[in-house]
Automatic annotation (TrEMBL):
<feature type="binding site">
    <location>
        <position position="11"/>
    </location>
    <ligand>
        <name>a divalent metal cation</name>
    </ligand>
</feature>
<dbReference type="InterPro" id="IPR030048">
    <property type="entry name" value="SurE"/>
</dbReference>
<comment type="function">
    <text>Nucleotidase that shows phosphatase activity on nucleoside 5'-monophosphates.</text>
</comment>
<dbReference type="GO" id="GO:0008253">
    <property type="term" value="F:5'-nucleotidase activity"/>
</dbReference>
<dbReference type="Pfam" id="PF01975">
    <property type="entry name" value="SurE"/>
</dbReference>
<dbReference type="GO" id="GO:0046872">
    <property type="term" value="F:metal ion binding"/>
</dbReference>
<feature type="domain" description="Survival protein SurE-like phosphatase/nucleotidase">
    <location>
        <begin position="6"/>
        <end position="188"/>
    </location>
</feature>
<dbReference type="GO" id="GO:0005737">
    <property type="term" value="C:cytoplasm"/>
</dbReference>
<keyword id="KW-0479">Metal-binding</keyword>
<feature type="region of interest" description="Disordered">
    <location>
        <begin position="216"/>
        <end position="260"/>
    </location>
</feature>
<comment type="similarity">
    <text>Belongs to the SurE nucleotidase family.</text>
</comment>
<feature type="binding site">
    <location>
        <position position="42"/>
    </location>
    <ligand>
        <name>a divalent metal cation</name>
    </ligand>
</feature>
<feature type="binding site">
    <location>
        <position position="90"/>
    </location>
    <ligand>
        <name>a divalent metal cation</name>
    </ligand>
</feature>
<feature type="compositionally biased region" description="Basic and acidic residues">
    <location>
        <begin position="216"/>
        <end position="229"/>
    </location>
</feature>
<dbReference type="InterPro" id="IPR036523">
    <property type="entry name" value="SurE-like_sf"/>
</dbReference>
<keyword id="KW-0547">Nucleotide-binding</keyword>
<dbReference type="GO" id="GO:0000166">
    <property type="term" value="F:nucleotide binding"/>
</dbReference>
Length: 260
C-alpha cells in the first residue's frame, strides 16, 4: 500500500489520550478518518444502537453510540473505502479468551471482519500499583510501545499476507520500559478467575486476573497473550471472527430423538 486509508475508532472515546496518540502516529503516513464514540463506551462488547447521532469532529466524526456502531457507520456510510480498521489505543489490556467478547475495542475490530475489512485492536497494559491504575497513562508517550506496534502492523500486515489467514489482530502492549519491547505472536489465554461476592442486597463481581498479574501469579504457558505481556513484550494474537462449529454425534442423537 502506498498511502493506507484507515478508519480509526475506539471505546474510550474520541477525546481520550490513547486515541489521539494512535491517531497522530498513524497520521504520519496514512489517510486516517476518526469514527469514534463521543463518550467513554468501555466494556460494552458488540452492543449496537441501530440509530446514533453523529457530529463532525476535527479528526473525523464523533458518534453518540458504541464502538460497533462506529465501525458500521464508518464502513457503511462515512468512510466506506478504507483499507483497514484500527481500534484503540485502549487504556487497559484486553487479554484472554473470556475478555474478547466484552471489549468494545476488540468488538470494533470484530465488526470490521464481517465487512471483510482487515482490522487491528490495540490496547495498553497499565499494571496495577499504588493508587488507581485508571489515573495513569495520561501522556501520549505512555502509549509509545502500542503506537509503534500498531504502526508497524498497519504498514506491513496486509502486504505481508497476514489477513489471508487472520481476520483481525488483537494487540496488547506494555508501557515503555528501559528497553524496547519485542513482538511475540500469541494465542488468547484460557485462564479464568472471576469471582462473585454476595453481601446483603449486592453481588460484587471481581476479576482476580489483574491482581494475579500484579503479583506475578500467572500460570499461563509460554505463547499466551497474558504471559507474553507480563514478560514485557508486545502480544499479537491473530484471530477470526465467526464462531466455530463442530460435528457432534451425541447432539445428532438428541435431535433424532426429539419427536420420539
Amino acid at each position: 500500500m502506498d498511502t493506507p486509508r484507515i478508519l480509526l475508532t475506539n471505546d474510550d472515546g474520541i477525546e481520550s489520550v490513547g486515541f489521539r496518540a494512535l491517531y497522530d502516529a498513524l497520521d504520519e503516513f496514512a489517510d486516517v478518518t476518526a469514527v469514534a464514540p463521543a463518550d467513554d463506551k468501555s466494556a460494552v462488547g458488540r452492543a449496537m444502537s441501530h440509530e446514533a447521532d453523529v457530529a463532525e469532529h476535527e479528526l473525523g466524526y464523533a458518534i453518540h453510540g458504541t464502538p460497533a456502531d462506529c465501525t458500521v457507520a464508518g464502513l457503511g456510510s462515512l468512510c466506506p473505502d478504507v483499507d483497514m480498521v484500527v481500534a484503540g489505543c485502549n487504556k487497559g489490556a484486553n487479554l484472554g479468551a473470556y475478555v474478547l467478547g466484552r471489549s468494545g475495542t476488540v468488538s470494533a475490530a470484530v465488526e470490521a471482519a464481517f465487512f471483510d475489512v482487515p482490522a487491528i485492536a490495540v490496547s495498553l497494559y497499565v499494571p496495577e500499583g499504588e493508587g488507581d491504575w485508571r489515573e495513569r497513562a495520561n501522556e501520549p508517550e505512555d502509549y509509545r510501545e502500542a503506537t509503534d506496534a500498531a504502526t508497524f502492523l498497519v504498514k506491513h500486515a496486509i502486504d505481508g499476507g497476514v489477513f489471508e489467514q487472520a481476520e483481525y489482530l488483537n494487540v496488547n502492549a506494555p508501557m515503555p520500559g528501559e528497553e524496547p519491547a519485542d513482538m511475540v505472536i500469541t494465542e488468547p489465554s484460557t485462564l479464568y478467575d472471576m469471582t462473585a461476592e454476595h453481601e446483603n442486597s449486592t453481588v460484587r463481581l471481581v476479576d482476580r486476573i489483574w491482581e494475579r498479574m500484579r503479583d506475578g501469579d500467572i500460570p499461563d504457558p509460554e505463547g499466551t497473550d497474558r504471559r507474553t505481556l507480563v514478560e514485557g513484550n508486545v502480544s499479537v494474537s491473530p484471530l477470526t471472527a465467526p464462531h466455530t462449529t463442530e460435528h457432534h454425534e451425541s447432539l445428532d442423537g438428541l435431535a433424532a430423538a426429539y419427536r420420539d
